[in-house]
Design a protein that fits this description.
Layout lengths: L12 H13 L29
Amino acid sequence: MQLRPGNAVSNTVADHLTVLTAAMRQIPASSHAKILVRIGVSSLKGAGPVKRGA
């Protein structure tokens, strides 16, 4: 769960990346190659491609 200010919009790309990053930190690095993350296209609408370095 991520808490934001009361006037913040929800489900932004930044929100998804923050929650995903926090979740990945809890998984041993040796298991990262076995994880597939799928995000619906509507959640990235208008944001363009998002690339994260390893």
